[in-house]
Amino acid sequence: MDIQQEIRVLNTAVGLIASYVNNDVCCFPEDRSKLVQSVLPRDDVAKKYFYILLLEVIAGVHKEIIPGKKDGDNLLALLNRIASAPRIDPESTTLGDLIKSVQEFQVWLSHEFEHEIYSSLISNNIKINLTRKDALYLVGNRCKHSLLRSNAILDKLTKIYKKGGADMNVGYQILILEDIDNWLFDDFGGYHFTKICELSSKVCYGIKQYVRPVYDRCLMKEDDARYSYIIPECVSEEESKYEYYELLNRIGSMFLPEIKTSVHLEDGY
Asked: pTM to 2 decimals?
């Protein structure tokens, strides 16, 4: 991954997380100095928006946009690679928080849980084994797609149900999509809303810790109202220059509340 691809990944990550962890989507206290231990979405529309954007963090990145990616890389995997071989600041000594936050998020997503549900739509008791990443994949895609575009998640959910012992006939399969709304979106998604906000904001602040020294070195104040940034010579493409400016602007103005999930929201699923 070259420096221009690194800029794109960092800028995308900061912009994306700031788009779903904010006061428009989440109910944060007005007192910005207050430690946040529990977060609720503003409403169901905000909650759907949250999980659609979260899907962009955990789903695979397209090679056409990041040619240096490896098969299966998502945004977190790319951030992990940046932390291992930084390009914007190869001599950085401030990568510790980024490494820790990305790995914490990846470990949390990979956790596999067992959950018993009763699907009233097919009158079956089912025992589900699922990773949190796969659960969020189902939630995000269900929020994003209408019934007419849900064949992929329907196939995935049908396989999960059959593996859990459900007796599925063709006439009932499409009904189980509503189960995503119930036990996944409402129960699982509601329970982990705070934790996902915490993990996401930690990644954002990890990026800030890495990029902030670059911001301080590159910032050129012309007067009280005007400023510019020194752009490295190796950042030659026009879109990369724009993304570099955008990244540094975001780092300079970033604010997210400090979130530490309450213990009673840590143990389930």
From this structure: 0.93
